[in-house]
Prior knowledge:
Chain A has nine helices and 24 strands.
Amino acid sequence: MLHTDKKEQESIRIERRHFLQLSTAGLIGAGLLGLSPFTPVAAKPTNTTAEIVILGAGAAGISLANRLARKTKGASITIIDDRERHLYQPGLTLVATGIWRTSAMLDQNSRYMPKGVNWLKSVVQSVDPEQNQVLLAGRKRINYDYLLIATGLELNFAAIEGMSSDLIGHHGIGCVYDNPENAEGTWKAIDRFAQSGGVGIFTRPSGAIKCAGAPLKVAMLTEHLLRQRKTRESAEFFYTAPGTGLFSQPDVDSFLKRSFPERGIDIHWNQRLTSIEPERKRATFATEDGLIQKEYDFIHVVPPMQAVEPIRESNLSWQTGPFSGWLEVDRHTLQHQRYTNVFGAGDCVGTPIGKTAASVKAQVPVVVHNLLRVINNETPDAHYNGYTSCPLITERGQAMLVEFDYDLNMVPSFGFIDPLKEQWVPWIMKDKILRGAYNAMLRGRV
Amino acid sequence: MSFSLLGIIAVIFEVFRPYWPLFVALLIIEAALLIAASSRSYKIHVRQVRKELTLTYLVSLILLLLFAPLLTGARYHNLGSIVDYAALFGASFAGALVVTLLTVPVWKLVKKG
Lengths: 446, 113
């Protein structure tokens, strides 16, 4: 009896061990196939012969192309952009403040363009949503069934009298936004300022801008650089804000309003840069009390920003209201409000917040999902909640991982990282990891 | 913002993509060292180089704890939370382990002399 019981027990142990081994192997295998509890089960591709045209091969455009290429079967997908070079735009701040080399933010669109997608290297001149047509340079017309607009935005240097992009890096003028070469020029200007000291002015325009944290980051990193070089005492720092806030998210705004004075960065409210005299190193600001002039040794110019002309001047843009000139989309579904076969993603959309790479990451899956719903004659049901993120670098070596939504509520991805605390880990994420996440986003993997 | 397992793997792959040539070179060197260490007529077991490996681990650990922030462009005063220190210790322990494992064939060769 005892012998039988022992054999039986041994048999049960073996079976249990075998079961656990099989289960573990199964879990690992399922995980590798993307079928773990952490991943949604991949849906079958949508069969369609739709002609889908994507305007723009930036972060949003390429991400859209990659996702659609995998999620459709039979669709004709065309992406239109004449740029071969792909810029990792979140790297501009790091180049402009001497943390990265320019090469670290350069890439090629061809590395991320999916197979089976027709890449038209051309420039969009106009869009006719009534005729479902896009007019390209050379008067070529492209017809579409569905149009995805990811044209980004453009910098309006002309809105500041006397300013042009050629001046960046000269006469003490910097601008983090323009392109990698001018970001490098900005670093040279900051470097000179850090050696010589003097008056440093950091500006921000009114209206929507991409990466609204960048003007603040440049100010804080420059201030930190002078402290590191022990030339801080020789410099005065001024930050000019067009209104009475530094950041849209209230908790971060409060933090910055405490931090800036502590760091000796004098905030001037309700001041907007209107003109610049590079030879004299003098800038003019519109204030509530009229125009005032300030002399500077370094000025960080942030120009007003707008949607590109084919969108801005078309019937696709908001015609009135606070988002006038930007693409008129429903802020949640990202579907155009009047042309239901048109969607938008990225910097071009007229929504309350969200001109960041993180916003693109959140928007693209929504657009793709809703587009496929429309193709299947269903109502869009995916919602974008306004998610945006800014790794707010406060000095070299530390940052705050700020993430919030349309309601300006903090929505941290990692619950163990306090978004209002300056920490090392968010710095590592910004410096070492987010570029990888961005590339994975381009490939439509996240 | 939530992440899937595949998404995390994709991000890790992209983060390390620029370093693949370095990893491949390291693997080749390591493989060559392992072959050299195993091909001797008198094989050295890992336990015979236990002291050397322990020393390697401790030295690596201390160096990483001291210099990991510097390697990331930061300073010690930038560590501002339990998360930061957990990351520092976690990365240092893991990094020291990797260094130690990589030196196993080296110590075996040295021991045999």
